[in-house]
Every structure is written in structure tokens, then in C-alpha cells.
Design a protein that fits this description.
Blueprint (H helix, E strand, L loop, with lengths): L1 H16 L1 E2 L2 E3 L8 H14 L3 E6 L7 E7 L1 H10 L9 E6 L4 E4 L1 H9 L3 H19 L4 E2 L3 E2 H4 L17 E4 L3 H13 L5 E9 L4 E8 L6 H8 L9 E6 L2 E3 L3 H8 L5 H6 L3 H12 L5
Antiparallel strand pairs: 1-8, 2-6, 2-7, 3-4, 4-5, 5-6, 9-13, 10-11, 11-12, 12-13
Helix pairs in contact: 3-5, 4-5
């Protein structure tokens, strides 16, 4: 009987171990101003060999900040994979004024972004995650759960958009350089009440990704993040990417659900307008409207 119960326990543990959460809790830093917390985290990560590419405090989310870094090994992997895998290049870390730190579970996000190519990247992803864990403290996973096997074809519900949805495309330009310049120019002028958080460009591969702060007090990210849950702050900022001559984004019924997999349908219905607003805002940024 003991052997039978132990076997059942192992089976249950195995099933649980297949689930991944989107974030890890890091070791707390000193409480105070958000900028101070960001600086403390930035110092830890630069010492660990990461490169800071952007940071910001999302509009409408007082007491929260986000730091975005890159890792040489992960960038080399993205370069080899090419295409829309560029959305997996930035590494996001969330901070709060109380000193709380959270950061991406790279395996969770990159299984969803790299999909069938993930086995080619797994060694690099695990190495980068180990560096993150050491630098920031490997705390508990949180933010919901999704089975590993479901991430490569992730959908919040059957029939909803996925990583390769046609709705992801925002604008088609004549050339890669035109798409990049349009996004840079439009972010610089604050079109649609946006601003640039970061940019990662690989001209030789004709791929790029930009972090976009959406600062509109009524239609920016603050209102829907409060409903979805600000604890998952490391999901921000939203990104716009370029592959060859096409600018795109990850449609919000996929992107928000991936960042907040524990959000119930009731909460989703309260932010039902968010996907359209995000799409329209980023279409302007991509050069598709003024």
C-alpha cells in the first residue's frame, strides 16, 4: 500500500512539474522611490553581465517600474533563430517601491515565442535563467500556470489568436529600414501618446523589437493592467516588432493572456476593449495612421 501511495504521489508531482509560471519572485531591495529600486536592480544585473536597454515607470501604475535587459548568449540564440523570435530578446524585470522584485521565467515565455524551435534554444535559455536567478534571487514562481506542452501553441481559449495570428500584422513597408525608421520617428514624437522604452535591432537579420510605453491616461496600459493584476508588472512593456518589411505585434488576446494566465473570464470581459485599443495605438506607431 505504501508503494502504491508513493507511486500516486510521484505521478501527481510529475504532473505538477509540467506546469510553468510566467514569473519568479526575486530578493527584495531597499524600499523607497521606484527609481532607487530600479537602480539597485540595475546594479545587480550589470555586475552579472547583463546589458540594460531600457527602464520606465508605467503611466497610471504608481509605485511600479520595469527594467529591461539583454544577455549576450540569448541574443546570439535569437539571431540564429531569426524571424519573430526577436520578441524573445528582451528580458523584463518588475520592481515596486516597497522593494519587491519579480522577473520573467524565460522558459515559460520562450516556449511560447520560440515554439518548435525551443529545443534549439533550450541550453541558452537555461544558462540565461541561471544567471538571472543568481543575480536577483531565485524565489517562488507565481502569476498562474500553463502546461509546458501547451505553450508552443498557446491560446487563452479555443479559437482565440495565437503567436502566428493574421491579426498580429500592423503595417507593411517597402523595406526593413523603412519600417524601423517609421517606428523610431513615431515613438520619438510621441504619436498616440506613446514613448520608447527600448529597442533591439539586428539589421543583418532584418529583425527588430521595440518596447512601447502607452501613456494615455484613459486608454494606456494603466487601466487594463490594474484589472488584470499589477503584480505581473514584468509583462510590460508591450512590444512592436519588425520582420523584413512587416511591422507587427502580438495580438492582446494572446499577449495579455500569456502574461496573466490566471486572470478569469470576468476580468477579461472588463478589459474587452484593450486588444482593439492596443492594436490601433501600435498601428499608428508602425506608420499605419496619424
Amino acid at each position: 500500500m505504501r508503494k502504491f501511495l508513493f507511486a500516486l504521489f510521484l505521478c501527481g508531482f510529475a504532473q505538477m512539474s509540467w506546469a510553468l509560471s510566467p514569473y519568479f519572485q526575486g530578493s527584495k531591495v531597499a524600499a523607497g522611490e521606484v527609481q532607487t529600486a530600479l537602480s539597485q536592480v540595475e546594479s545587480k544585473l550589470t555586475k552579472a553581465g547583463f546589458s540594460v536597454v531600457g527602464k520606465y515607470m508605467p503611466s497610471g501604475l504608481n509605485g511600479y517600474g520595469v527594467l529591461v535587459v539583454t544577455d549576450k548568449g540569448l541574443l546570439e540564440t535569437v539571431r540564429k533563430l531569426g524571424g519573430a523570435s526577436i520578441v524573445g530578446a528582451p528580458i523584463r524585470i518588475g520592481v515596486k517601491s516597497d522593494g519587491s522584485v519579480s522577473y520573467m521565467n524565460l522558459e515559460y515565455w520562450l516556449r511560447a515565442y520560440f515554439r518548435k524551435q525551443f529545443p534549439l534554444a533550450e541550453k541558452s535559455v537555461k544558462a540565461t535563467q541561471a544567471k538571472l536567478n543568481k543575480a536577483l534571487g531565485a524565489g517562488n514562481p507565481f502569476g498562474g500556470e500553463v502546461d509546458r506542452k501547451d505553450l508552443a501553441d498557446y491560446q487563452y481559449m479555443f479559437g482565440m489568436e495565437g503567436f502566428e495570428s493574421d491579426k498580429n500584422i500592423l503595417m507593411e513597408h517597402l523595406a526593413f529600414e523603412d519600417a524601423v525608421k517609421a517606428i523610431q520617428d513615431n515613438l520619438a514624437r510621441g504619436l498616440g501618446k506613446t514613448s520608447k522604452v527600448y529597442e533591439i535591432i539586428m539589421p543583418d537579420k532584418k529583425i527588430a523589437v521595440f518596447g512601447v510605453a502607452m501613456n494615455d491616461p484613459k486608454e494606456g496600459e494603466g487601466w487594463w493592467v490594474k484589472t488584470a493584476g499589477a503584480e505581473n508588472i514584468a509583462a510590460l512593456p508591450y512590444e512592436i516588432y519588425v520582420v523584413n518589411n512587416k511591422a507587427g505585434h502580438l495580438f492582446a488576446r494572446f499577449r495579455i493572456a500569456l502574461g496573466w494566465p490566471n486572470v478569469g473570464m470576468g476580468s477579461f470581459m472588463r478589459i474587452v476593449e484593450a486588444p482593439g485599443i492596443i492594436h490601433d495605438t501600435l498601428t499608428q506607431v508602425a506608420g499605419g495612421g496619424h
